[in-house]
Amino acid sequence: MDIRNDWSRTEIHALYQQPLMDLLFQAQQLHRQYFAANQIQVSTLLSIKTGKCPEDCKYCAQSAHYDAKLATEKRIAIEKVIQAAQESKASGATRFCMGAAWRNPHERDMPYVLDMIQQVKAMGLETCMTLGMLNASQAERLKTAGLDYYNHNLDTSREYYSHIISTRTFDDRLDTLSHVRDAGLKVCSGGIVGLGENRQDRIGLLYELATLPLHPESVPINLLVPIAGTPLADVEKLDVIEWIRTIAVARLLMPKSYIRLSAGRESLSDSEQAMAFMAGANSIFSGEKLLTTANAGESRDQALFAKLGLGVEPAKPSLANLAVDAMAVA
Ligand code: SAM
Ligand code: DTB
Ligand code: SF4
């Protein structure tokens, strides 16, 4: 099957409403054409600036607009970041993702993030950042410093978007994704399900992602982690099967992309996660914590991988990694 960027909403709707076993079967078959069947890419996350965010994303513990109980933290010291990256590498993760609760990085933040990228990259890890909106020059400078991926989610459909965020537009998000792509960075972009949206909105989100000129290399599908104090604290829980369907449809639309089980995994059983892997998910965040909320944790994930016969995808050799390995041997 060729990679397509001309999907219609009608086609996506037809994929969604198939019998679940048909959907899972197709997704798993296609998954195996593009990826090793039982390998999962593993990333870790670190919050480098926590809380007091000026944006009003209704799901988020870090927004200054709501009253979530959160230990806020200013920019953390680079040494702390390096230490966390070392622990992440030792645990087997291949990508280290650094996130900041910013609307966008200010110019005064750029030396800090550029230095951090250079140091983490020099350790032989893939680097990822999620810092909010970027302009073209910022994206280029991140790339030059050695950033591999930039995460910036569309979050939901264009239609539902204004119910969730008012402080930046859907088109602002698309602009940032263009800057990231134009700078030669790999794109990580997905969304959240369980925000109170309907299936048409989930179709709308996948439609936007799958009709970008190039599919994001990485597509996180977050399941809302309800946060007390935010407007979505008590939203009705999404049926897990609908989340599984969303993953399977994402796999069918974007066969070459990594589909990541992101936020919300901690609340899912082993069997539910197994079904998500069956649906073609092939990436997770490991570790005890995401940015501010709990994650599944290393020992639970090790047991899950052993039970399911899954392995961690090895690091991809890059010039930087080869140099680091050569130094380690010498
Ligand atoms: N501030 C930056 C931004 O919004 O682009 C980066 C960090 S932000 C926390 C990254 C993503 O995490 C959001 O776009 C959203 O998809 C996801 N996220 C945040 N809070 C969440 C929650 N409570 N449940 C599920 N996903 C969440
Ligand atoms: C993404 O899509 N999910 C990750 C990552 N990108 C940065 C973040 C999940 C955050 C979950 C809520 C929290 O821990 O605060
Ligand atoms: Fe800020 Fe990002 Fe949270 Fe939105 S999702 S409030 S931009 S930290």
UniProtKB/TrEMBL annotation:
SUPFAM superfamilies: Radical SAM enzymes. One of its GO terms (biological process) is biotin biosynthetic process. Its EC number is 2.8.1.6. Binds 1 [2Fe-2S] cluster. The cluster is coordinated with 3 cysteines and 1 arginine. Binds 1 [4Fe-4S] cluster. The cluster is coordinated with 3 cysteines and an exchangeable S-adenosyl-L-methionine. Keywords: 2Fe-2S, 4Fe-4S, Biotin biosynthesis, Iron, Iron-sulfur, Metal-binding, S-adenosyl-L-methionine, Transferase. InterPro entries: Aldolase_TIM, BATS_dom, Biotin_synth/BioAB, Biotin_synthase, Elp3/MiaA/NifB-like_rSAM, rSAM, rSAM_sf. Its cofactor is [2Fe-2S] cluster; [4Fe-4S] cluster. It comes from the Bacteria. [4Fe-4S] cluster binds at C53, C57, C60. [2Fe-2S] cluster binds at C97, C128, C188, R260. It catalyses: (4R,5S)-dethiobiotin + (sulfur carrier)-SH + 2 reduced [2Fe-2S]-[ferredoxin] + 2 S-adenosyl-L-methionine = (sulfur carrier)-H + biotin + 2 5'-deoxyadenosine + 2 L-methionine + 2 oxidized [2Fe-2S]-[ferredoxin]. Residues 38-256 form the Radical SAM core domain. It holds the Pfam family BATS. GO terms for molecular function: 2 iron, 2 sulfur cluster binding; 4 iron, 4 sulfur cluster binding; biotin synthase activity; iron ion binding. Pathway: Cofactor biosynthesis; biotin biosynthesis; biotin from 7,8-diaminononanoate: step 2/2. Catalyzes the conversion of dethiobiotin (DTB) to biotin by the insertion of a sulfur atom into dethiobiotin via a radical-based mechanism. Homodimer. Belongs to the radical SAM superfamily. Biotin synthase family. This is Biotin synthase. It comes from Acinetobacter larvae.
